[in-house]
Amino acid sequence: MKHEYGVVKESWMSKRGIRIFAQVMSLVLVTGCGSSSLTKTLTPPIDTHLPPTSESSLSTATASTTSTSVVQTECVGLIPESTKDLVRSYVDQGLNVGIVVGVVTPCGTETYAYGEMELAGGQPVNENTVFEIGSTSKPFTAILLADMVERSEVSFDDPIEKFLPSGVTVPTRGGRSITLIDLATHTSGLPSIPDNFAPSDMNNPYADYTVEQMYEALEQINLTRDIGSQYEYSNFGMGLLGHILSLQSGMSYEELFITRIADELGMPDTRITLTPEMKSRLAIGYRDGEPFPLWDIPTLAGAGGLRSTVRDLLVFLAANMGLIESHLYEAMQVTHEPRYPVNASMEIGLAWHIRTLNHAQVIEHHGATGGYWCFAGFIKDKKTGVVVLTNTFHDIDEISLGLLWDSTTEH
């Protein structure tokens, strides 16, 4: 069968694997360009919360499917009952196996979880359940770039061939080279998926794509438009950026991420390689009611290789909004600056997509793999961030964008 990224051969894998691969590729590890629109607001918050935890320096209230006690906190009402009803309806209808929602504001955080880590008797999901986050990995890669620019280790305008092995041929157009910032803004002209991308396992499509193949793809590309002239979402480009930053730092992408971001912010559960303890908290991914394997993305890790929790991602959003102190704050602000138009209602920063929602600027990124879906976004002026994770390949934008919309209507 043929799709926009090339020919998919029936012999590669089962028809189900091919179908799901095509669906996920059409979302490009999910686009993050936020195609969903919201047509109505949610009802005002209701002050019902459950006992706070001490996971973070921010005050926290949590809820789960089994909790029944109620306590008032200074963060009462961050997640309205209408949102909880919507979450429950998704799970009860069988659309999603488990969903965890988190909100962070200056007063602290609240999480609400409903559903299971796996079907047939699994443990309830919660704010410490581990999920794949797909393309929500991309803002982390952009922040690594901005941080390395601050440290004078690279420059935004450096041509990418400066960092690649001397034998690698890099495409140019009109005498212009692809630069690091072109990769970070999806304006390099590189395709979404490399032309020589041919998975042997359609259920884990990136696992066997090698660095050598990535270099070969670069050498074979004939750019069809001017570099820096137009936005086109590219997993290839963002994965290549992560690879280049890894080469320049002398560390693997994961080591660089842990050293520069995870350890700095206190995000112990955001990793590529799962520890045995993290595996015990890993939600099984699902598609069409069937388990779906994790995706391994060794070469293009910067495009979508991370796994995380709602707790960790709320810390990440809090740092982006300046709610917690971090040496990364200035680098993060650079990634929020609009750079290029995506469409009539959206712009691209460094990896982050920036849209207007009810006259407020929302900075966001989606992500999906074969069995998971993720949203992380925030309104900087309102200092309100939202994370939604699910262990099902099913859109949760109505939940996430609804919460952000709701925050714009508060007075």
Question: Can you describe this structure?
Answer:
- The protein is an alpha+beta fold and 411 residues long.
- The chain has a single domain (2-29, 47-408), classed as Beta-lactamase, CATH 3.40.710.10.
- 29% of the residues lie in helices and 18% in strands.
- The protein is built from 12 helices and 17 strands.
- The strands form 5 sheets. It has a 9-stranded mixed beta sheet, with helices on both faces. The chain has a two-stranded antiparallel sheet with strand order 1-2.
- β16 and β17 (384-390) form a beta hairpin.
- α3 packs across α6, α3 packs across α7 and α3 (138-150) packs across α11.
- The N and C termini lie far apart (53 Å).
Q: Which secondary-structure class do the elements indicate? A: alpha+beta
What CATH calls the topology is Beta-lactamase
Domain unit count: 1
- How would the global form be characterised? globular
**Percent helix range:** 25-40%
Assembly of the depicted chains:
single chain
Secondary-structure element pattern, one letter each: EEHEHEEEHEEHHHHHEEHEHHEEEEEEH
Low-confidence stretches: 1-16, 26-57, 59-74
Query: What is the correct CATH architecture?
Result: 3-Layer(aba) Sandwich
CATH H-level name... which superfamily?
DD-peptidase/beta-lactamase superfamily
In short:
This protein has 411 residues and is an alpha+beta fold. The protein has one domain (2-29, 47-408): DD-peptidase/beta-lactamase superfamily (Beta-lactamase, 3-Layer(aba) Sandwich). The chain contains twelve helices and 17 strands.
